[in-house]
Amino acid sequence: MQITVSPDGVHKGTVFDRIFNDYHRQMEYVAFSVLQNRQDAEDAVQEAFISLSNHIELLSQMEEFRIYYYVTETARHKAIDMLRSRKSNLIYDDAFDLISPDGDFTEKIAAKDSAQRMVTYIKQLPEKYRDVLALCYVNGLNANEIAEIVGRSPSTVRKQIERGRTILLKRWKENNDG
User: Fold this and answer.
1) Residue 122 and residue 144: Cα distance in Å, rounded?
2) Is 141 helix (H, G, I), strand (E, B) or coil?
3) Residue 92: left if φ>0, alpha if ψ -120 to 50, beta else—which one?
4) pLDDT tens sequence across 9-62
5) H/E segment holding residue 10
6) How would you write 79-94 as a 3-class SS string?
7) Measured between alpha carbons, how far is 121 from 123 in angstroms, rounded to an integer?
8) Handedness of CA 108, 113, 117, 123 (dihedral sign)
9) Cross-strand bridge partners of residue 11
10) What residues have CB less than 8 Å from 31, skipping those under 6 apart?
């Protein structure tokens, strides 16, 4: 990394190196708690550091506790972005699932169609419901784990999961019982 000096005399390389050395493990932990995959967590942290490098002057002026919060939140957001981008690809991506010998082909086609419609409905939900439902059902996390990731209380998360399910059920019935 090239060390450059900003107009106020702050060495960018030094600040960036210190942030990397002090916080990369915490950032990986936060990203892993979202993604549940070490390699994906490392990728999210790498993306976070790319983003942080664009804000090094801001970081160099922050107090220590604010830096910790800022960099770990950046890692969390990058992990959630990765999770969102792969959400739609998680259900029945592999065509071989449809032709495997265990199970009826017609049932699998119907299940795939239902799953695709459900993904469409989930994508249409407001973000606060979409995120918690994805973390709950795609990642298998409980309300306490989700609360830590999204920065909400566990009771709020439980209520958002409940409301999100209610909206999904209503949309499902409107579009499939008529």
Assistant:
1) 21
2) coil
3) left
4) 444 558 888 888 999 999 998 898 888 888 999 999 999 999 998 888 888 888
5) none
6) HHHHHHHHHCCCCCCC
7) 5
8) positive
9) 5
10) 40, 41, 42, 44, 45, 48, 75, 76, 78, 79
